[in-house]
Specification:
The chain has about 350 residues and is mainly α. The chain is built from 15 helices and five strands.
């Protein structure tokens, strides 16, 4: 048993290192391509969104793949992280704070606020299971989006002013600043998100989730996923570990939202940004990449984000090809015959086959 545990740990460490090296290698290759002028401006514009979707997919995979709970509210946590970080940045614009320090603090604030909402929502929601949990988390995402759309916040020498009516009802002084302008959102956020920052956040997210799932806490979370009754019977605190995993998952989505907010000069809580489709798209990344595989989530997020743009020249056939690729990836990852074929033709499988033939 001891030998098996050591072997499993070494295999996990090796897999984690491969994921880290993959991210770093891609970063170096992309920087080289940019330096040589071989990358188009369109593709360069996709680099930060690729990082954003990869980060949020990592967070959702922790919830779906390891906790075993279907959440459709991660676009809501992303929205919370985006607006809280952008609010802080806009509020501190005239404070004279160093731009880099302000940006780092904005990301931290977006992450912590999303974690708080994850904890707050998780207390009642995680008592539900299956479709009911998915429906309630989806409702949370829609509620957050609609609340922000009717919120007006400004500041002047007397402090902060709040309203849910209109900007005029804030009664700001002439030198006052309107921070959140209802459905128009937050305007004038500095565009500080870069590909380098995105890759750093991906690596930090991977470190957090890898250390979590390979720890005693991670084993408890997976035990709850596999058999809730058995886990509870051996003394595992179900509520504690589910809340912990859900909050960390929400926090990672919030970090992605903070990066998203600082990649746009205008941030709005429109359905196209943080709506139902965003949650479904992130879930697609997780499912196609393999539930429980953080490396797969990153690869799926990159491929499925780049594909529509790369096929844009095909016009009428672009979405048809995209749909075919989705189906092909699903079959390749989850069809029993495909799994059997991959195991047979893997290096390990071929080696085992040759060993049997020799014997």
């Amino acid at each position: 048993m001891k030998k098996f545990g050591i072997k499993g740990t070494n295999k996990s460490i090796k897999s984690n290192m491969i994921t880290y090296l993959m991210v770093v290698a891609v970063y170096i290759i992309v920087q080289f391509i940019i330096a040589t002028g071989s990358m188009s401006s369109l593709m360069q514009g996709l680099l930060v969104p690729l990082c954003i979707y990869s980060i949020v997919a990592i967070g959702l995979n922790l919830c779906v793949g390891y906790l075993g709970e279907l959440s459709l509210g991660h676009a809501g946590f992303m929205c919370v992280g985006a607006f809280s970080s952008a609010f802080f940045t806009k509020y501190m614009l005239d404070s004279g704070m160093n731009e880099t320090v302000r940006f780092i603090l904005a990301i931290i604030i977006g992450t912590l606020v999303a974690a708080f909402f994850g904890f707050l929502i998780g207390i009642p929601v995680l008592r539900l299971r299956g479709d009911y949990l998915a429906i309630v988390t989806l409702a949370f995402g829609e509620i957050i989006k609609n609340v922000i759309n009717v919120l007006y916040i400004g500041k002047d020498s007397t402090g902060l002013h709040f309203s849910i009516k209109d900007s005029a009802s804030l009664n700001l002084e002439e030198e006052g600043t309107l921070i959140i302008n209802g459905a128009k959102g937050i305007i004038g956020t500095p565009r500080q998100s870069t590909f380098t920052v995105g890759v750093i956040l991906i690596l930090i997210s991977l470190v957090v989730v890898f250390h979590l799932v390979n720890s005693r806490t991670g084993r408890a979370i997976m035990a709850i996923r596999d058999n809730r009754i058995a886990a509870e019977s051996v003394g595992i605190n179900i509520t504690k570990y589910k809340l912990m995993a859900f909050s960390i998952s929400a926090a990672i989505a919030g970090a992605g939202g903070a990066l998203y907010a600082h990649n746009l000069s205008t941030l709005t809580a429109q359905p196209a940004n943080f709506g139902y489709n965003m949650s479904i798209m992130i879930l697609v990344f997780v499912v196609l990449g393999g539930m429980g595989s953080f490396r797969g989530s990153i690869i799926a997020a990159v491929i499925l984000t780049m594909l529509p743009e790369m096929l844009r020249g095909l016009a009428d056939y672009r979405m048809l090809i995209y749909a075919i690729v989705l189906i092909a990836m699903m079959l390749f990852n989850w069809a029993p015959k495909s799994i059997e074929w991959r195991q047979r033709h893997s290096i390990k499988g071929m080696f085992q086959k040759k060993t049997k033939e020799v014997q």
